[in-house]
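To whoever picks this up:

The nightly regression suite flagged PepSY-associated TM helix domain-containing protein as changed. Nothing in the input moved, so I suspect the structure step. Input below, exactly as stored in the fixture:
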Amino acid sequence: MRPVLVRLHRWLGVATALFLFVSGLTGAVIAWDHEIDALLNPQFFHARTDGPALPPLELARRVEAADPRVQVTYMPLGFEPGHTAQMMVMPRSNPATNAPFDVAYNQIAVDPATGQVQAQRMWGAFSLARIDLMPFLYKLHYTLHLPIVGGFDIGTWLIGIVGILWFFDSGIALILSFPSVKAWRKSFAFRVKRGGYALTFDLHRSGGVWIWGLLLVMALTSISMNLAEPVMRPVVSMFSKLSPSFVDNAELVRAGPPGQPLATREQILALAARDAKRENLTEPMGALYFAPMFKAYGVGFFAPGRDHGDVGLGNAWLYYNGQTGALAGSSIPGRGSAGDVFMQAQFPLHSGRIAGLGGRVLVSAVGIAVAALSVTGLMIWLRKRSARRLSAAASEARTARGRSLT
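Regenerated output under the current build:
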């Protein structure tokens, strides 16, 4: 059985090494995406004008009035003092062509006191320019910047499948790391004084053993981050009943009389304020999101600057049919079945934010470790591959000599 597991571990490791190396390093960096982005691009984070902020809906109206080609799809509803209001936008349809306007940006930074756009960028663009660097790394982490072809997201699926292979390979690696009960101590040791191949081997085997639990969590949550609907939710639902997700409620969200105009932002926020009281949500309304694909709105509840959900299971969200204003779903941390709470925990665990600052430090360290395990694994494979080839060559040479003598 062990030879089979060794072969499986070898080929699963080789197949996923490059992907895990990239994901590990980018994950270590994007654990601090907001902070690094602010250092690189202060104009995107720090408002130029001191003074009281305009009402959030007024800011959105001014943005859309300044460039009628776009509509605001994400907007904060509260602002940190001295900070910009970061909004997402999308192009409207050009009535002359029925095609979207050609707009060179999808994210803007707005001065809350004046409503003036002071910076803009195309979030996720394939660019290493300072303004684009952190979004570039973030998207690289979970899609490798691979395209969507015919509605199929190649990058998201690829990284999700790598996560599945990594998850099973983690179990195989643990079994192989303990070849015997008597020699278990060796599986935790590092032969630092010997150096060379011995240390490389220990860094791979023992290093993986010491942080095995964390690696398993990262592998599992990487599946959830990329393949929640097609893979993770169906599996979890086998053990615990899940509340309908936003995607599960897609038809309800879309449902509405043909031709009925969208509800206004003011109407949605009024409904959210009412429903927040009924749900006993204590945090203020923090953001308003519009999903054109579903003709739906989402309202998040968090204090200014807490949009990432810095501690615990994240922020609460309520979702609304964009035409009728009917409540079409919710995600409230800590509520629901055991399966619901498990799914709520996936992003906080993957990002480390479930444990606050310390969790993010740990996730960065694990990301670097994943990259190191990928490199050491390849080094071990290449060395053993070279040794096998030399051994085969020597065997062929001996056979050839034997034949010549006869």
